[in-house]
Amino acid sequence: MEGGEAMRRNQTVICAPIMADTVDQMLNLMQNAKTSGADLVEVRLDSLKSFNPQSDIDTIVKQSPLPTLFTYRPTWEGGQYAGDEASRLDALRLAMVLGADCIDVELKAIDEFNTALHGNKSAKCKVIVSSHNYDNTPSSEELSNLVARIQASGADIVKFATTALDITDVARVPIIAMVMGEKGLMSRIVCPKFGGYLTFGTLEVGKVSAPGQPTIKDLLNIYNFRQLGPDTRIFGIIGKPVSHSKSPLLYNEAFRSVGFNGVYMPLLVDDVANFFRTYSSLDFAGFSCTIPHKEAIVDCCDEVDPTAKLIGAVNCVVRRPDGKLFGCNTDYVGAISAIEEALQGSQPIMSGSPLAGKLFVVIGAGGAGKALAYGAKEKGARVVIANRTYEQARELADVVGGQALSLDELSNFHPENDMILANTTSIGMQPKVDDTPISKEALRYYSLVFDAVYTPKITRLLQEAQESGVKIVTGVEMFIGQAYEQYERFTGLPAPKELFKKIMAGY
């Protein structure tokens, strides 16, 4: 479903940066930008391999299917132009005369540009005065001073781009403000909520004019960009790494299917306590939490569900109307129910759990490992914890009344047949898809193998289990199971279970 104009709730412009070797290539890309749903194209003159200002700018202005913003970025501001200033500023002045809708002049060059104009500014063409900082995000006070300087230069539109060294840097930024890099993605998605004038969206993955730009397609089709407004509630997944997560696909499509006014984003977070201190408003309504923050987040919550407290890990945080944070754990419900369903198969439903009495081996003693160990014990299984660090395995085994092993011992551990194996570590996750926590030979002692990793869906561990004739449960099944409860807690609405299964069927 395209982000259609009929439902547009904001006036924030999506601008496609156009970088190419020739004018013809640029015109093709502009056509793509229009088809993709962009409102404006940024013509990066510094990317052209040969450039005849008068004829090239005239051709672009006349043939562009969308309004144009001309930028001629010098190397000293992160661009590709290494020639003299006078020619560069002449070309921008020419764009203004020939009918450009906007031009972008750097703050460091605006005085020289204004002097050369002699007051002959075009009424139609807006001047964006820009400042780019590729090193960091200055303090709020420094940013305010920067904005004042840009405004005083006679800018029609103020633009600055800073670099996020931490996700909390985004909180300091007003106006056309881009915070570059993966940690700044939020600034590019939620700018309509805060009245931002423009955001950049690329035509292709990886073809960016600055770090961290999303594609136009993702802005419109994943993040429902046109539907975001001042009252949109913000949700997201907190993790490190986080770009691999399928949660934004799942939740945003579910929000759109019922008209729920929310947006869900990947949030690359280094320090969760600092994140929650910075984003403390009711706008930030709920969060999923993944590796490595599930334990640290417990201390950030004002109240923690008793089961999550026992496990010592939280994967779902909801902000209550009074601003207080409530944490719970939906991981173990999702995983245990998926394992039970697979064990049950087509058997008639028995009373009690098919896990009762089974030897249940959990690999990993982190947040997800604790959740699985606790869940298996609750169902009557005998629990064994295998972990790289034996001491951590021992600690968790003591809590659940189980046995501890180091990971090295796991391949030789087979006191009985028909055991259950659950990997809760990131072993085998992209990009290290050739890794596995246990030898293939040892898998024959198990009746079922579960892997919490879901990128890729079939890990080497699951592939080798299948080849050994063992039942498998994928991380996708756990992921869907844990998402049901989170969605209901986020929205107060019943989870669209069939939609979730359909979306994830492609992965």
Automatic annotation (TrEMBL):
GO terms for biological process: amino acid biosynthetic process; aromatic amino acid family biosynthetic process; chorismate biosynthetic process; shikimate metabolic process. The keyword Iron does not apply. Its EC number is 1.1.1.25. Residues 355-426 form the Quinate/shikimate 5-dehydrogenase/glutamyl-tRNA reductase domain. GO terms for molecular function: 3-dehydroquinate dehydratase activity; NADP binding; shikimate 3-dehydrogenase (NADP+) activity. Keywords: Amino-acid biosynthesis, Aromatic amino acid biosynthesis, NADP, Oxidoreductase. It is an enzyme of class 1 (oxidoreductase). Residues 237-317 form the Shikimate dehydrogenase substrate binding N-terminal domain. The keyword Transmembrane does not apply. Residues 475-502 form the SDH C-terminal domain. NCBIfam families: aroD (TIGR01093), aroE (TIGR00507). HAMAP family: AroD (MF_00214), Shikimate_DH_AroE (MF_00222). This is shikimate dehydrogenase (NADP(+)). It comes from Nicotiana attenuata (Coyote tobacco).
